[in-house]
Amino acid sequence: MPPSAKIALTAVFAVLVLLPAQCALGANAASAHGAAHETVDQLLARMTLEEKVAQISILGAADPGLEQAVRAGLGGTNGVLPGRDVARYTARMQALAAQSRLKIPLWFMGDVAHGFRTIYPVPLAMAATWDPALVTRVHRAAAREATASGVDWTFSPMVDISRDPRWGRVVEGAGEDPYLGAVMAVAQLHGFQGEDLAAPDAMLATAKHFAGYGAVLGGRDYNAVGIPTREFEGVYLPPFKALADAGIGSFMAAFNTLDGVPATSDRALLTGILRERWRFPGLVVSDFDAVPELQTHGVAASPADAAALALHAGIDVDLHSGTYQRELPALVRSGRVPMSALDAAVRRVLEAKARLGLLDGRTGPGRTRDNRDGPPSTAHRALAREAARRSMVLLKNTDDLLPLRVEQRIAVIGPLATARRDLLGPMPAQGQAEEAVSILQGVREATGGRGAVSYTQGVAVDGGDTSEIPAAVQAARAADVALLVLGEDVDMIGEGHSRARIDLPGHQLALAKAIVASGTPVVVVLVSGRPMTIPWLADHADAILDAWLPGTEGGHATADLLFGVDGANPSGRLPMTFPRAVGQIPIDYAHLSTGRPLDTGDQYWSHYIDVPNTPLYPFGFGLSYSAFAYGPVQLDQATLPAHGHLQVRVRVTNQGRRAGTETVQLYVHDEVASVSPPVRLLKGFTQVWLEPGQWQEVRFTLRATDLAFYRRDGTLGTEPGAFQVFVGHDASTANAARFVLAGDAPTEAGNPPPAPAAAGSARDEHQ
């Protein structure tokens, strides 16, 4: 959705027509399902053509005829603006809908991407937790707040895989890897939809953007996409398939073209793959104004063509444009669009609302009681603080400079130290900047007056004034440590905010160089919504903590880690590779070897002449105040049967002086295959908590089907041969063992298995 449609980057909420509130669901689930179908049949028989089209059309709040349309059962709404009482708004609109001929209630939807009133870390940061249970808890809390104000449908999770951090929307996803992306997507789904969609605090979730949007050329929003079929099937589709299998209620089509075909008109994608191959029964919604944009793409000559193409492709709901409402009645009457196609789309919309339990009258605000548009609750703030702590990634810590002592003299310097709104990230729903805790506030509260904390801005985020740099240098020289808070503001991140350069904007690097030259130890807190190119900081700062966009409690969480409050210890791991330079992009750990992968002693090998091939920080990387050591990888057998499994074991020891969490990652590499295999692929991970001196034997179960890939003939399956399995701290680990897969195990396309739980119990190292 374009920023112009998301006033002040807030959530977009919309209203669609629903079923009669007086039609109750039966107590028995099966009879309720049958009753819902019967009610839909009866309603479809009573509805006029225009009323049917209204079911699959979403109008904007600014539409001058909106209220009259809602009274007539012909309208929907969106655009809950900042400062608006959402609960009051939804109640008022429901009252208007009750005046319509069929008294059909409305339902409301929008972007609840990382919180509603309490704002949690952005999705990319939540992926950095590598903790699906925590992700589910966060989105469960967000759903409770949103449904309390009458919001029933979220346009999340975004599961686009991306290997290009220039793309502004990487902030909304889980990064570069399809396995981690699928695990995090399903965790979000469980949070939003819960165990029972009919529960009053559950909301319909949406898988977006289907498909391939993360591979837009040049990392530029709305651009074209060119993905080889095997890569599309093996990298970009798995998170969507995982959500379809897990019961997500809706899909959103992507803005982009794929092989020249706009997703909004791609029947092979929306019907062929989604409905026929995957048997997805839910509804499909367009992205914002994407239906009329088929004309701009050059595949539709008129609005009528666009509407006919989109409905035929499988788009059930037209988001915002009004094209369906204006064009479909005439198209149906002329016979160009069959009534059966319209009825199928309307039925999917109505049945989705039945799944939400709205048929029994639980409509509007107050379906739950979690602070209806009120300030974040104590429990939700505590969860936001925990999530932010767990999401932050320690990238460097020379000579154990961190954690800091609260008694030190600390010079807080940088344009984002006092930021509040920026910490909330893009699409903060009903989050309020004044309720967010800045990093400076968090540091001052953590020191409690026991040390001396000064503040100097130094430079603006992206301004040209450098006159305050000398004052910042003077403040650093007077301190025991300089805390530099640098990065991007919210206007550089998210939809419509792709960047050709992803280094520090403005004169922030000049500020950093001046502070480092002061001789005072320097800790950098990086505020960002993407991996950034920060090679100079990596070489010269003493410590770097990537705080991402940490949400309402970001300042407290940052301070917790900087000072090790109550044993706080960084545990975040990177869900995306950090490049050294923009020229390395797209970049990911799961690349192919190429025919000349190694230094041959001359120029004829795959490399750059000005930077190393290696990333600045690899996928899965993250430091800790603890020191974890890995024993050799051990297998229970040297051969994996085609329909069997093998046990992978490794001992992990905390050799440090602090208790901490280690994320144990398992990767595999196929040594010889019918198509060139990636150098390694993530196939499992788990987290272990170890006290100083303790060790744990971590066990994974690896199955033959985990090794499936799209073979040269286009089928999904395995091939016999030798494999390597790696277990370690990140994607660059060399800790490996070798086994042989015996036989061929064909399989259907499916979602990755859940991240395996750790097996074994912690033991003292001397045992």
Describe the structure.
With 767 residues, the protein is of the alpha/beta class. Among the domains are: 111-254 and 378-625, Rossmann fold (3-Layer(aba) Sandwich), CATH 3.40.50.1700; 628-764, Immunoglobulins (Immunoglobulin-like), CATH 2.60.40.10. The protein is 28% helix and 18% strand. The protein has a 6-stranded mixed β-sheet, sandwiched between helices. β26 (721-728) and β27 form a beta hairpin. The protein is globular, with a radius of gyration of 27 Å. Residues 1-29 and 749-767 have low confidence and may be disordered.
CATH topology of the domain at 111-254 and 378-625: Rossmann fold
Q: Can you summarize the main beta sheet?
A: 6 strands, mixed
Q: In percent terms, what proportion of residues is strand?
A: 15-25%
- The Rg value, from CA coordinates, equals 27 Å
Q: Report how far the terminal alpha carbons are from each other.
A: 57 Å
Which structural class do you get from the secondary structure elements?
alpha/beta
The number of E-state strands comes to: 28
Taking pLDDT < 50 over at least 5 consecutive residues as the criterion, the unreliable ranges are: 1-29, 749-767
- Mind telling me the CATH class of the domain at 111-254 and 378-625? Alpha Beta
Arrangement of strands in the largest sheet: 11-16-15-14-12-13
Mean pLDDT: 89
Helix content: 25-40%
User: Mind telling me the CATH superfamily name of the domain at 111-254 and 378-625?
Assistant: Glycoside hydrolase family 3 C-terminal domain
Q: State the shape.
A: globular
* Second CATH tier, the architecture of the domain at 111-254 and 378-625: 3-Layer(aba) Sandwich
Question: Total number of helical segments?
Answer: 21
